[in-house]
Amino acid sequence: ETLKEGFKSVAASEIPPPPDYAVPEIDPEWEDLVRKSRSARLPEFIIDAPFVPAGDQPRAIEQLTTGFMEKEQRFQTLRGATGTGKTFVMAQVIAKTRRPTLVLAPNKTLAAQLCNELRGFLKESAVEFFVSYYDYYQPEAYIATTDTHIDKASTINEDIDRFRHAATRSLYERDDVVVVASISCIYGLGLPKEYLRASISLYIGQIWSNMRDVLNKLVGLQYTRNDVEVSRGTFRLSGDVLDIGVAWDDTVVYRVDFFGDTVESIVILDSVTGVVRSEEERVCIYPAKHFITPEEQLEPALAEISKEADEQVEAFQKMGKPVEAARLRQKVNNDLEMFRTVGYCSGVENYSRHLSGRNAGSPPDTLLDYFSANWLLIVDESHVSVPQIRAMYAGDRSRKETLVNYGFRLPSAMDNRPLRDFEFWAKVKTCLFVSATPGDLELAWSEGAVAEQVIRPTGVLDPTVHVRPTEGQIEDLVSEITGRTEVGEKVLITTLTKRMAEDLSAYLGKLKMRVAWLHSDMDAIERLEVLDSLSSDKTDVVVGVNLLREGLDLPTVSLVVIMDADKEGFLRSERALIQTIGRAARHERGTVILYADIVTRSMDLAITETARRRRVQMAHNEAHGITPRSTRNSGPVGAAASGARSVLQVVKAERQRSRDEATAASAQVAAKADAARKSSASASGGEGEGGGEEALGVEGLRKLMADAADRLHF
């Protein structure tokens, strides 16, 4: 009750009210397209878990479900301590409200973990993964002081791109969908209506006027023809057999048999073995890219681009900026020529407003627009995710204003942007904030509708917290690590800077400790592999900066060390410290050491809150005769239940398959080379008579090298 009064006082503070929900307009054509695409409708989400709600979970589930279903509350907050089973409560709320759900996580690592856990609880449903597909991204920029123009540079992770396509496909074909996404979901994703309208529906008995129409449609969906090998985003025609490597799954090939111009059969094959996985009556082939512009819209869009360029060039000339005018004219003319020649240009996203037919200043279509009208948003680690939503637009606009002012881009390029925070919230009908330390905005918008979880079903208490001086801290740290690793327990260490993390990791490595360090330059899959190494007992210590905070499910970690805990700031604020302390809350011997010379206000608040939770948990355990016992997760990071296939497992399996294919191809080429050498030696009377390696000749080697190149794809 005291907490509720505190929440109400926060709600009464000067927090801006949430934007009103903007009811989407009903488009009959759009509704009809979605209705026809539904081929796997399930009436509800089915929870599959080896346990039932316990501790604070039943009360939280009942309160949140009643709030959404009966009281029709728009915003609610789940304030749950680390390890109390917030993800299980989220799955229960999704199942009971029966709504397609978007789960927003603050980074790729946590998104992957959440996706794996929810797949374990909702095995029969489509739980998809949607994060930024860039492993490296350098946006286009201009530094006026040095007259330096930086071209856009990026590398795309094909695995994550496939996950994104699987997410949008599931949103069209199923009702029981959960998409776990990072903040990238607020960036433009192309028009949902055009994406669905462009798709090709194939069914047995379908008659085409000409089979070539199917091929032309596939090319229009940005699939490419490859008569040698069918891979993701390609197709092959052999006689009357059409093989399609779909964009959302590279483990299968869709094979369509024609009899003349009539579809005779449709089967789904394993892409490696060729074994038939299933026979289908009907399939839908979705575009290989999310950005699709119908051919009839292209010329009007190019005319609008040309018109805007003329106006902007004239404006530059009136302002006495001939260099900017010439630069813009040359840039736009080159892009228009590329559009008319190949249908694409570098930086095509900067013309998205014209290509999609949007009005100036209007918000872009994002992943949110792919959901049906009655959907649920869950914001995990909301104290981090909500500020991210606010921050994305300002940073993007600042960079693009410079490009526009100096003639590198048209003003319409600024409409290729993320959603602004009020645009985002206007699309949200119901929302659940989830955090151990919710922010003031979440509490204010929830208006007292806050469910608290402190009790862990395992009975494990919050960790004990010790403050130790910085003098002699490294020697003390080494001693603590040694004591933990000797009994098979793991350690997390968080530092203030990347350099400190790297140096400390190197020092511990010299002491023959199994140590790894996390840093921002790692891609999402590499970070998952480092965390997975703790569970698989390949690593004992992980050192990092800010990547060790929210949500990491690491039950083998019994010690968390916070270096420079008294350096007040973002990384050592009250919320940051509580979150970091929570990393040791899944182990019955959980301990946290704060190396500091003074106790700051943030340290005091974090230690006090942790002690309060321990008292509540101890009282509950004594009243119910519970002995604390932590779970041990021996599987991949985030695989919360048996049978759950993690994102990391999927990627590892596919990488291993690619390596196996390359090895097999190399062995085949080597065997041919050996056979050719023996044949040449035999024809010339043996190696002693000028045969062997020399007899194979330059042309023979050239042919073998060409064969090898054909078999290896990169």
Protein structure class: alpha/beta
Strand order of the largest sheet: 3-8-2-17-18-1-19
Helical coverage, percent range: 40-55%
Tally of helical segments: 21
Termini Cα gap: 61 Å
Roughly what fraction of the amino acids lie in strands? 15-25%
Average pLDDT taken over every residue:
84
Poorly predicted runs = 633-645, 687-693
What's the β-strand tally? 25
Present the secondary structure layout.
Elements: H1 2-11, H2 28-37, H3 57-69, E1 75-80, H4 86-97, E2 101-104, H5 108-121, E3 126-130, E4 134-138, E5 141-143, E6 148-150, E7 153-156, H6 158-173, E8 177-181, H7 192-198, E9 200-203, H8 211-220, E10 224-225, E11 234-238, E12 241-244, E13 252-259, E14 262-270, E15 276-280, E16 282-285, H9 295-318, H10 322-342, H11 352-356, E17 376-380, H12 382-405, H13 421-426, E18 430-435, H14 440-446, E19 450-453, E20 464-468, H15 473-485, E21 490-494, H16 498-510, E22 515-517, H17 524-535, E23 541-544, E24 557-562, H18 574-581, E25 591-595, H19 601-624, H20 647-683, H21 693-711
Parallel strand pairs: 1-18, 1-19, 2-8, 2-17, 3-8, 10-11, 17-18, 20-25, 21-23, 21-24, 22-23, 24-25
Antiparallel strand pairs: 4-7, 5-6, 9-16, 11-12, 12-13, 13-14, 14-15
How would you describe this structure to a colleague?
It contains 21 helices and 25 strands. Strands 3-8-2-17-18-1-19 form a seven-stranded parallel β-sheet, with helices on both faces. The chain has a six-stranded mixed β-sheet with strand order 10-11-12-13-14-15, with helices on one face. A hairpin with a 5-residue loop joins strand 14 (262-270) and strand 15. The protein is globular and about 75 Å long. The model is unreliable at 633-645 and 687-693 (pLDDT under 50).
